Prior knowledge:
By secondary structure, the chain is of the alpha/beta class. It has 10 helices and 8 strands. Helix 3 crosses helix 5 (132-142).
Amino acid sequence: MTAEQILEGIEFACPGGAEPLLLDLYLPAAEVHPAEGRAPKLFPAIVHFHGGGWRTGERSSLGPVLDGFGFSPFRRLTDAGFVVVSADYRLSTAAHFPAQLEDAKAAVRWLRNHAQEYGVDPDRIYAWGDSAGGHLASLVGLTPGKAAATTAAATATGTVAAVAAWYAPADLARMAEQSLPNAVARADDPGSREELLIGAVLAEAPGKAAAASPVGYVTPAAPPFLLVHGTADRFVPPAQSTSLAAALQAAGTDVELLLIEDADHMWVLPDHSQAAAEKAMDATVDFFLRQAHVP
């Protein structure tokens, strides 16, 4: 067996007028010499998008709280037999929506185009994200098809076979009304993260808000979803996930909703333990293993 390998800073896209977008690739241990006559094992893969309100964040991180726990989510997934990609996308300081979705789909296309090179099963590519990244993962899953290719080689689709989203915005127009009474941030605050994403005041641009809302793209063709949210989330209302789950269920699609009691954003608990983070991670690994049909 070989050890887990991490390939950092791979360029996967270069949108016009922007800096190159990079991704990190985490490869699980693999057999060096498969048995004679046996085809090399193809791994399922997960493309991850980071949080940060679309305006901050890094592809190597799931946020300062989880980093402080010494949390190793990508290692958890490679140990379970997945290839993991964690990708950049243009932040709202550089471009407004839908640039972020275009970049997210470009990362999935890159992986599918390079599937053979890294031993990835192109039919078992999934999306996962936390907060703003969960919003993008949801949109990737709900807007199938080929996004505009930026190079002649970008011929694969940006579709995914399943989605896991942690405390993700799903309906920008309703975020403010769904906020908890003790909310730290509301979508209708002047200069909110959501308004910076679409480049307009939400109430004055309902079309832009709808275009950036995963709930509006739900159809019976949606892939399986896992939605995980804390009931005490002061940044993204838990009703965002319950509303998306209800829409997916009404469409007849496969959706699992896990609400973690007393957990705030980034799985902060009153006792400051990492129990909620571990619960969310366990559920996510289990969900993807079932989707990939890995025993």
